[in-house]
Amino acid sequence: MILHLNFTAEMMSTSSLKQKTFNKKFRKLGGVLTALFLVGVIQSEAKEKLVLNQTYTEEELELELNNSETIQMDTFTVIGSKNNVDYLPGSGRFIDNAEITNQVYTDINRVLLSTPGVYVRQEDGYGLFANISLRGVDTGRSAKVTLMEDGILTAPAPYSAPSAYYTPTIGRMRGLEVLKGSSQIKYGPHTTGGVVNYLSTSIPNEKEGHLRTAYGSNNETLVHFDYGKSFNSDSGKFGYLIENYDERSDGFKQIEAATDYAGSDQTGYQKNESMLKLFWEPNTDLEQRLDFKIGYSDFDADETYLGLADADFPGDPFNRYAASRFDNIATHGTRTSLRYSFSPNKDLSIETTAYYQNFHRNWFKLRRIQTETGTKYGLGSALATGGLPLDIIKGTSPGQLDYRNNNRDYYLGGVQSNILYTFNAGEVEHEIEGGIRYHEDRVRRFQQDVSYTQDDTGAITGSTNGPLGGGGNRRQAAKSLSLYAQDTISIGNLRLIPGIRFESIKNEYTDFNTTGQPELITGSGSSTLDYVTPGMGFHYSLSPQTGLFGGIYRGASVPGPRAHAKSDVGLEESIGYEFGLRHRNDNGFHIETTLFKTDFSDLIVVDNIGGSGTGNTENVGDVNAYGLELLIGMDPGVSNQWAFKTPTSIAFTYTSSTLDGDSNSTDAESIFSGGKDGASVPYIPEYQVHFSTGIETGDLGIYLDATYVDSTYSTASNTTAQVNPDGDPDARFGLIDSYFLVDLTAHYRINETVTAFVGAHNLFDDTYIASRHPAGPRPGKSRSFSGGIELNF
Predict the structure, then answer these.
(1) pTM
(2) Which of 365, 431, 465, 637 is 20 to 30 A from residue 689's alpha carbon, by CA?
(3) Rounded CA gap, 434 and 422, in Å?
(4) Which residues have C-beta within 8 Å of that of residue 26, sequence separation ≥ 6?
(5) For residue range 510-559, what is the model confidence (pLDDT) as tens digits?
């Protein structure tokens, strides 16, 4: 068996260069990398592509650990490796690069569906806007999950505006970590759900390059390039990595024509992400290391909130109405980190990180329509009402299309320091870990409305711009000081892990004029929020191959500054319990089964998630969730000594997530409005099953993945009709279809350098309503094919 370990972490720099400078420099980086490749700076040395930083056999691993002079601390992975999962005090999963690339996945939703206890609400078919839930929490914009890249908070403003309109691109990652119940101590601020940590490409130990290109349906293209090297000098050891990732598609939908518009099949996106990493290990008696990372992201998509009318969905689920033809979102952002780590002695390790990130987005999108008499309809209402409102959206009746520039700037930055100290007290081993983080983030909303008039053929006859800031003009900011401490106590075969986390948050908001004087302050406020989340986990080894684990933890999810200071929205809290068993034998069979129960109180439904009504954040009540998670892995080919391998896994989740008491929501359009005691939480399926298998023989690998997700309700009212609790038509209310997806890929290694691959996603072209939010029924992605090559240098 081969074990993969990674001891590299990346940090953020506090330097705040101007955004325009970043735009110019990083947009050129892809061309620079290609030029380097073409002139032959990178020699074609056939080397095996490392999934992680270092690969050990079991014997080499034991020797390495025995000879290690200092303890290792890696705060930028939450699990570290697949092998480490066996010793967690709770349920978690490490998804390595091979698991991502075997099926040529670039959609985070498809990757996560293989993990028990994780649910996703699809929106665009590509995973561009992730809606992730762990163990029954609300899925909206992944707001209840702590999202990180290399251990650093990566949502644009996790305290001020937790709705994640940016998530790291899974296609450029070397791995993904999911930690559920036991995550509440070390990670925050949103711990009622858990942690998803993206692992970016590592600096290799030796000179190494990688190029992956693909082309597929709907002109979908992918070019992923990285090159790096580590080397020794008189000053110490140095390493670097340069990377560029480019992905684009024309989209799988078509926009209807109007008199002055020919229609279009350009409903896709393009994204480009570049990254540079550096490290230096000085040649000194003190073991120390400096890591630097900087990355830039640029994204553009012709994406819309508008769905379809239920009556139109069966006839052409991939159609888009003419009124959505102007919809577009453009974003760009920079992330950077600087880390210093040192070990004064073999029992003590300390790391300090400074990090900075900025992010801008403007989503210009249709938000409502008006009749010639001035009657206004929200999008969900117009789709469900039909008649004149729907005709206006289709461009067959005169009316007004109201758009909005959802223009926002985000910033986050901070410093965090972690310490790890080990010692023995008689027969008891202690591993004490502590951390402190000072963090700031803010969001500036400066939005303008634009209205278009159209005639009865859909031709645009005029436009009107609203005042600057008229569509929303405010600033929110949060400053947080967080501390945690935990002790891993080992007594024979038992490991106890008690811990505690403390957060103190200062919130501020400022409202500005929306009627023509955008700099005029119309209101402001501030508040403070302190909370403590203790927990206790354990792991007990019944044998070298079998272990029990479990724990009880308190979790929390914080409201935004304006919601807390102005609207008295309180802290969402949870108490989570889990108990499980793991077993692994020498023939490649492993099983993990977990029982979990989580009681949520004062569940927060955040604004900005699209179709949540007036957009007001609110506490909607209590939720009880419980269930069973099962993960089985095996390789019959290995265990039966066949001439080929057959890696196989099954992931099963049963979940009951229901309201404990009636919903407190006062907004008839909210997805939690009308919810009664015992009603199911929206978008949380009762059953979810994932099966994967493959055949690996010589240079050929064939892999099949199949996923079944049960039907759900789109709102807590649990209605099958497109009607809100006030009796008004609304296409956001109703059922979400169950679906069954099959993906099939094949890889063939032509030589030591070149591998070719082909694949099909949604092989049987299952058509289904994937979501009713943000505004009306939306389909899952249609069947698609792709193929490409991968070069390792």
Answers:
(1) 0.90
(2) 637
(3) 12
(4) 274, 296, 298, 334
(5) 999 999 999 999 999 999 999 999 999 999 999 999 999 999 999 999 99
